[in-house]
Structures are given as C-alpha cells and as structure tokens.
Amino acid sequence: MENGKVHVVKPQSEARLAILELAHIMSVPTSLVAVLKMKVPEAIWQGGKNTPLSASQILSIVRPNGGGDAENLQRILRLLTTYAIFAEDLSSNGKRKYSLTDIGKALVPDDDGLSYATYVLQHYQDQYLRAWPLVGDAVEDASVEPFEKLHGEGAYAYCMKRPDEMSLFYASMSGLSMPHMNEMLEKYDGFKGVETLVDVGGNSGVILNMIMNKYPNILKGINFDLPDMISSAPQLPGITHVGGDALESVPAGDAIFTKWTMLTWTDEECKKVLQNCYKALPVNGKLIVCEPVSPELTDESQRTRALLSGDIFIMTMYRTKGKHRTEEQFKQLGISTGFLRFRAFHIDPYFPVLEFQK
Ligand SMILES: C[S@@+](CC[C@H](N)C(=O)[O-])C[C@H]1O[C@@H](n2cnc3c(N)ncnc32)[C@H](O)[C@@H]1O
C-alpha cells in the first residue's frame, strides 16, 4: 500500500507491456522526425527562451498561415515527453505546455545551422527506411548489404552521386561530431607537438579544422577521404583535401586521426587501413582513433542500447561485416598490425579515444 494505492506488480503484465512498447516503438522515431520537420524545437526555443508552449501555440508559430491539428500535435508531444525530449507543464489550468529538455535543446540548430536533428533526419530518409525490413537478410546472406540489395549500390556510393544527399551527409556528420569533439578537445591533449596531422575519412574537413584551431602547433592538415566525398568540401585555412582510398594508402603525417570510419570496414579491411597508417607514421608516431566502442557486457543501459542499435544500422546500411567493436577487439587489431602501445580515453560514452603508438 503506497499513497492509498495498492501496487501489484505482476511479472507477466510487465512482459506484456514490454512487448507492446516494442510493437509500437516505430511511433517514437517517426514522431520525432515529424516534429523536426515541423521545426517544433526551434518554435519552442524562439529567442533562446525555452518558454513552455501549448500545442496550439506551437502550431501558430510553425503554421503562421493557420492549419494543422493541435490535438494530434499534442499527442505526439506527449509521446516524445516520455522519451525526455520535451518537458510537460500542467500548471496553467491543466493545459499541457511543452518546453525543451537538454535532449530537446540538442535538436535546435546553432548559429551555423547545426544540431543533432540533421543526423536524425538523414537517417530517416526514404532510402534507409525502405532497407530496414531487410535487416534479417544480413543473417541469411552476409555477402551483400540490405541497402545495396535494395538500391543496387552501397550507401556511400548512393550518397556521393547525389549533391543534396552529400550536403545533408556533411551537415549530419558535423552536427553530431562537433559537440563531442569540443568536449574531447577540452579533455584530451594528444595533439600536442604534432605539426602535420592527417584525418582519414575526414569528410568535409570541419573536424580537422576544429582540432587545428585548438592546436596551433598543427601547421598542416590533410583531410583525406574518398575522392567523390571531398569533391564539394569547403576550403579551410591550412587544410589540403586529398582524395584517395585508405584501403590502398594513407598520406604521411606525424600523427593520424580517424573518427567514425572503421565501423564500415571488415576486420581484414581494418587491418589493411591500420597497416597503411602504420606505414605513413614516423617511429613513435600516433594513430588517434575515435570510434564507437561496444561494451563487453550486454545490459539494458542507454549506452549499450545506443551502441548496439548503431551496430545494426551499420550492418543493414553500410557493411554486413563492418561493426561496432569492443575495446579489446581494437587493441588486438592494433597489436596485429605492429602498433606497440594502446591506450583508451573514455571521454565520451559513445566515442572513446583510442591511441595506437608505433
Ligand atoms: C561516418 S563518416 C565520418 C566522417 C567524420 N570523420 C566524422 O566523424 O564526422 C565516414 C567517412 O569515412 C569516409 N570513408 C569511408 N571509406 C573510406 C576509404 N576507404 N578511404 C577514405 N575515406 C573513407 C567516408 O567517405 C566518410 O566521409
């Protein structure tokens, strides 16, 4: 008996609830995409104030010419409140009003138009959504990615042929990478003393630019990526864009950085790239890797879920035998390719820094 209510927790009813939640879980990302497309976070954040607004007030901002169903918007906002994207306020005569939580604020574009919203929107484009029902095909036949089976080409090739998709990919990568790189650069000082830094799979070059701004000792930055991927990369001070394939060779530098690349390579391909990095480094040179690192234990934590669900995204869209690896798997890959020292810095729960020294 608690507060006059009798709580009878029946394991079987909990099991039924869990199944119902999973059965309906598509409502969550699709509702999130809907509010992002309607620019609801921006509407609540107007003037940087985060004022709680009712669904009809939000609609009057996102639909200034009228229209839209406030009750249905409120239904969506309530669901997303259960995922702590919005906070619900019932203080004004029981009328529900919504503000942004810290998670919701991460979806509001910054002055450069970047936020986590772009990453979400990029992932929920039609070409990916249509590949999801084929996820089990990666078990039946691991020789071809479900995305490629459906579209006749791999996810990178698909992206690189389409200029709009490329811009979205750049913005998605930058929007996600910049906030945690800011924190990483505050806490990790492994770029001290480096004069030439190569970023393998550096995409638009914005991360290399961030590193160089923080470490003026880096005089030369080489942003290395697939030729078509850097074809529309912006010009950035001190940075040379070099097109190539890391599976063939990597430009020389006194340190090499790579972030969020190895997950799309098989173990054999990772070894090849690590060998190429080894060759491109001087004695004592460092390879600094920033990759999703899967936990050894399978638990129900948010971190484990974020990492294991990202792993299935990779398996379905990019590479059936690419993967999120554990720290030990990274260490063994480094040792097998000749690196002498391995250190892990757990600055970010999703993207730890892994240092391999020659
Ligand atoms: C997920 S993105 C990460 C981009 C950036 N490093 C970041 O963290 O925001 C992976 C990048 O690796 C690049 N890439 C994939 N395979 C590559 C290869 N074989 N050689 C060079 N770059 C490659 C892709 O073109 C893409 O820009």
From TrEMBL:
Signal peptide: none annotated. InterPro entries: COMT-like (IPR016461), COMT_C (IPR001077), COMT_dimerisation (IPR012967), SAM-dependent_MTases_sf (IPR029063), WH-like_DNA-bd_sf (IPR036388), WH_DNA-bd_sf (IPR036390). It is an enzyme of class 2 (transferase). It comes from Medicago sativa subsp. varia. GO terms for molecular function: catechol O-methyltransferase activity; protein dimerization activity. It holds the Pfam family Dimerisation. Its EC number is 2.1.1.6. The keyword Methyltransferase applies. Residues 134-339 form the O-methyltransferase C-terminal domain. Residues 21-109 form the O-methyltransferase dimerisation domain. GO terms for biological process: methylation. Keywords: Methyltransferase, S-adenosyl-L-methionine, Transferase. This is O-diphenol-O-methyl transferase.
